[in-house]
């Protein structure tokens, strides 16, 4: 969902498995993902409010209270934390990548 959306210049949201009931289940259910693509994040929130409603036919669906995505769209996220591994075992990050990132990340 996310990668095709990025190729098309829109937003994509891939919810956790079981959040969106999937019925009828197909042959590739374990490899497929139900998600939303839209031009605007608010549109995704409105759709998520509708498609996350319970469906008793899907035994893998989570039985959770409603989240109300559209109401929560205006909450500010926490500051983002990013970890960078400049070297993993014997493999070091490419110099070009290290050069670009090192100037943009705090110590």
Strand content: 5-15%
Mean pLDDT, all residues: 86
Globular, elongated, flat, extended or rod-shaped: what is the shape?
A: elongated
The ordered string of helix (H) and strand (E) elements is HEEHHEEH
Structural class: alpha+beta
Radius of gyration: 19 Å
Question: How far apart lie the N and C ends?
Answer: 34 Å
Number of helices: 4
The helix content is 25-40%
Regions with pLDDT < 50 over 5+ consecutive residues?
none
Tell me how many strands there are. Answer: 4
Q: Numbering strands along the chain, what is their spatial order in the largest sheet?
A: 1-2
How many strands, which pairing sense, and closed or not: the largest β-sheet? 2 strands, antiparallel
Summarize the structure.
This protein is of the alpha+beta class and 107 residues long.
Task: Characterise the protein shown here.
The protein has helices at about 1-10, 40-50, 70, 95-100, and strands at about 10-15, 35-40, 85-90, 90. It is elongated. Helices cover about 30% and strands about 10% of the residues. Strands 1-2 form a two-stranded antiparallel sheet. Strand 3 and strand 4 (about 90) form a beta hairpin. By secondary structure, it is of the alpha+beta class. It is built from four helices and four strands, in the order αββααββα.
